[in-house]
Amino acid sequence: MDIKTLANRGVLGLHPYQPGKPVEELERELGITDIVKLASNENPLGLSPKAKQAIGDAVSDLTRYPDANGFYLKQKLAERWSVTPEQVTLGNGSNEVLEILFRTFVSPDSEVIFDKHAFIVYALLTQSIGATAVAIPSKEWGHDLDAMLAAITDKTRLVCIANPNNPTGTFLQPEAIEAFLAKVPESVMVVLDEAYFEYVDAEQRADTHLWLSRFPNLIVSRTFSKAYGLAGLRVGYALTSVEMADLLNRVREPFNCNSLALAAATAVLDDEVYLAEGIALNKAEMARFEAYFDERKLPYIPSVGNFITVEVGEAGAIYEALLRQGVIVRPIAGYGMPNHLRVSIGTAEENTRFMAAMDVVLAER
Ligand SMILES: *Cc1c(COP(=O)(O)O)cnc(C)c1O
Asked: Model pTM greater than 0.90?
């Protein structure tokens, strides 16, 4: 018997998520050790000292199951965002928050709306359930909220909005999202995926979590993987109404956040210095990337995240050539962008390495 015939509808159409190439893999391939990886939008500063301390302290308790309710982390997040702990759902990365959300609301006969160049996990989750993906063409690489609204049907269960979006780095003005939410039927869930929330200037962004009382169908999703530098530990969270959190928690696997992750995330929320340092570095280095691409006449999409997406022509070939220079960036053909590369903003030194490597590659062309 062919086991494939037994898989759930949608599974055969899936392709595994393509992560950035691991440093160790390229080291083995090239036989060199000073690889620079600017491919997964990670925090280049390394672990926060407060998080490190908390992880060390938590190690002695690893024989025990983690706190299934994440009491301290939820309490801290609730304080930080002026919600109640009952409005917080923790996930194994915000990726799992999305998965829980899909499992809660999306069935094979549902439609899910997202932008054509949005974070690819929305498409993967839709496909894995066997639901129908409604991918909306972008407007200047950003989400077209009017078109998304117009695409809503009786079957629409969920609309996914990444703000800022990955891999384009585009940003929707909060007023536009607020107006959108006011028009979406309450029976349609809207997830606002804010994985890069912290990188957006405070004057530019809105406290979207304060909209929850007005929009019971809203899910605000955030993560510790990017600005808080805990990508390897996997912690993200959803802020929602109490009723919504109650549903998500029924689906959530009880021990989905491990003890080290809970301890580190709770501690890093107090590390304002680390957060500010990372944001300042990102801002300064983003300006350097823009100047560099301007000088080389390479068109880029202005980004408010910790990465920048640049048009280079044959991106696959440039990606390979950069690898040979020991620099890993991210090809995004899988996002329908075969001419672009996404480059994460690293330390000043790493970014200089990228620019030097890019100059070599451009000269070879
Ligand atoms: C990185 C990212 C996430 C998920 O990251 P986790 O590590 O799972 O928290 C979610 N959404 C977007 C848009 C991202 O870029």
From this structure: yes
